[in-house]
């Protein structure tokens, strides 16, 4: 396999696609780690009703938006992705809570 180049170093679409594919694998691995925390939360929380915490959800989304903007990314787009991520995490945690 050829070396994965950084975005600014890419000169062909093949290099760009290889970089995106490699990064997507890393992102999925990071999501696995994030969902491990959802497993822990489901184990630790005393009641199913504690799984959904709207104040914490808003905080997590706002932190992601602010960090995106700090890095020069579109904050609204990142916030929308985090809305989906957090809702998926809550659904996952509820399933894990019910399974325990």
Keyphrases for this structure?
single chain, 100 residues, mainly alpha, Chorismate Mutase Domain, subunit A, 3 helices, 0% strand
What's this entry about, in short?
The protein is mainly α and 100 residues long. It has helices spanning 13-44, 54-70, 75-99.
Account of the protein in words:
This protein has 100 residues and is mainly alpha-helical. It has one domain (11-99): Chorismate Mutase Domain, subunit A, CATH 1.20.59.10. It has three helices and no strands. The chain has helices at 13-44, 54-70, 75-99. The protein is elongated and about 55 Å long. The protein starts with 12 loop residues before the first helix and ends with a helix. The mean pLDDT is 96.
Number of E strands: 0
Note the run of SSEs as H and E: HHH
Biggest sheet, open or closed, and with what strands and sense? none
CATH topology value: Chorismate Mutase Domain, subunit A
**Helicity level:** over 70%
Total count of helical runs of at least 4 residues = 3
Q: What would you report as the Rg, rounded to the nearest angstrom?
A: 17 Å
Query: Low-confidence segments, ≥5 residues, pLDDT <50?
Result: none
Strand content: under 5%
CATH class: Mainly Alpha
- Structural class call reads mainly alpha
Spatial separation of the terminal alpha carbons: 42 Å
CATH superfamily name? Chorismate mutase
The CATH architecture term is: Up-down Bundle
The total domain count is 1
Q: What's the overall geometry?
A: elongated
Mean pLDDT: 96
């Amino acid at each position: 396999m050829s070396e994965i180049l950084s975005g600014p170093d890419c000169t062909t679409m093949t290099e760009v696609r290889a970089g995106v594919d490699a990064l997507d694998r890393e992102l999925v691995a990071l999501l696995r780690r994030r969902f491990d925390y959802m497993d822990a939360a489901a184990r630790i929380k005393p009641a199913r009703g504690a799984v959904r915490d709207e104040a914490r959800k808003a905080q997590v989304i706002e932190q992601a938006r602010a960090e995106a903007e700090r890095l020069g990314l579109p904050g609204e787009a990142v916030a929308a992705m985090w809305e989906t991520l957090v809702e998926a995490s809550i659904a996952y945690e509820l399933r894990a809570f019910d399974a325990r």
